[in-house]
Amino acid sequence: MSENSNTPERPSGPIKIPEGLWVKCKACKEIIYSKEVARGGKICPKCGYHFPLTAKERLTMLCDEGTFATFDDGVTSVDPLKFKDTKKYKDRLKASSDSVGPHDAVVNAVGSVEGVPAVLASMEYRFIGGSMGSAVGEKITRAAERALAEKKPLVIISCSGGARMQEGILSLMQMAKISAAIARLRGAGLPFISILADPTTGGVTASYAMQGDVNIAEPRALVGFAGPRVIEQTIRQKLPEGFQSAEFVLEKGMVDLVTHRSQLKAVVGNLLRLLHVG
Questions:
Q1: How far apart are CA 63 and CA 112, in angstroms?
Q2: Residue 161 and residue 84 in one domain
Q3: Quick one: which of 31, 109, 6 has its CA closest to 63?
Q4: Mean pLDDT throughout 152-162?
Q5: Same domain (yes/no): 30, 80
Q6: Is 147 contained in some domain?
Q7: Which of 44, 100, 109, 120 is the most buried (most CB within 10 A)?
Q8: Of 227, 213, 226, nearest to 257 (Cα)?
Q9: Is 27 helix (H, G, I), strand (E, B) or coil?
């Protein structure tokens, strides 16, 4: 190349692309610019697939700007059964706390949705699959009790693999404990809106996730008790296409609405204004 040429030299070796610059859609398999996905509320611009959100991202999207504040962050799980499978339960708890945060698999908050003050609980799937142990049960119960004491509506965003097996019967007891708290809320005439994200399964579906005055699912969310593979193996039959998807369970009357994430705040706000007197 001539010494007077202004053409830059091509770098030698492979070009390094920064990590996290692109993301692959789970549904349509398209490779998308990650900032474009983030700007769109973590929704695929090609097919509308809803990417997973953290608990605090869900609260940020649902609540009016700057209005939500968390509470009961210090309620965390212990290892009462000294449980061990391929790994000690206490080690699983530590690993999740270190990577996700100490709030266990649910974040409680107070905030406003479209101007309506509410108590909210948002589940965190990254913390041991959003499983419901004693700490999760206690925190959601406290959220319902705070809503009752302050005469505010309750909103729970579920995203869970179900009860946490490492806590055995103590985990299963949370289903009745939370259901009793929800019943007291209903007895006082205070609304409970249940939002089902992908996935909502197991003991969470079998208890409070389906007890809302209105149950709303995100598009394509998996909603059910046992997973499709387990059901197929049990009944030895092929399940219908889309079985346990939000759209399927809406058709069967299991949920009331399937709402796009971009419209969720407006829909919840309208429902709270309609249902809440006070």
A1: 5
A2: yes
A3: 109
A4: 97
A5: no
A6: yes
A7: 120
A8: 213
A9: coil
